[in-house]
Each structure stands twice: as C-alpha cells, then as structure tokens.
Amino acid sequence: MTAIRPLAPADHDAWLPLWRGYLTFYEAELSDEQTALTWHRILDPQFPIHGALATDDAGNAIGFVHWLTHAATWSALPYCYLEDLFVAPDTRGTGAGRALIAHVTGWAREYGAAKVYWLTHETNTTARTLYDRVATGTGFVHYEIGFDS
C-alpha cells in the first residue's frame, strides 16, 4: 500500500533521483543550483510551495508531488496548482499517482481552496488516463512566453 507524507529535510536523497527522473521524462534540464533552490523552497515555510513523498510498503520512495496556492480573479478563495507529479516508472499503476493527487486534494480542501488544477503534456497518455478518471478536462490550451535569465 502506498503511503503519502509531507517532504522533510531527511528525504532529500530519496527525492533527488525522482526529481531527476521527472526532469528526464519531460526532457528538461535544470541546473544543480535551481534543483537546490527548489528543494529549499519546498521545505521553507516562507514559500507557498509544498511537497509530499509517496512510499511503498518497504518505505522506498516511489513518487512525489509539489503544489502551491495563489489568489484568483474568478474566486474569493485561493486556487491550488499541482505543479509537479511524478511516480517512478517501475511503480506506475500501483495507485501512487492517485494517492498523491488525493493527498493534494485533501490538503487543498482543508486549506480552503476553491479547486486544484494542473497541466500535463498532451503526449503523457499514461498519466492522462488517470487524470481523466479523477478530474475534469477543461479544454484549455496552455501558452507561455519565456524570458532569458
């Protein structure tokens, strides 16, 4: 059975290979400095970024989720953005992804958020099969304008 718990400082060595696997999956590269900053922000109560770790029956880390909240123009209540979700490839289909989403959803309800939302790549068919079961597709298309650092 999958267990979900908040990320803690001692989880860094278990989280890091999962984080790297997540970046590889999305064919993304981040500097070691950005990865360290992300980790510190997740643990820093001054930042509205939160994280949880999924573990298997043996206590091995098999996935993670990161989320944040923000004010909204269409609601008096804040929104909860599920920014990162990853389950190790060899443990997909075990319910870990569903449990991580349920964890964020429970947290967001308790926090008083109006909704939880997230994005994924259109080719992420395995995850989208789960997402179609637990959430409602909105039909919106994502656009962005990036800036050089």
Automatic annotation (TrEMBL):
Residues 2-149 form the N-acetyltransferase domain. Keywords: Acyltransferase, Transferase. InterPro entries: Acyl_CoA_acyltransferase, Bact_Acetyltransf, GNAT_dom. The keyword Acyltransferase applies. The keyword Transferase applies. Transmembrane segments: none annotated. This is GNAT family N-acetyltransferase.
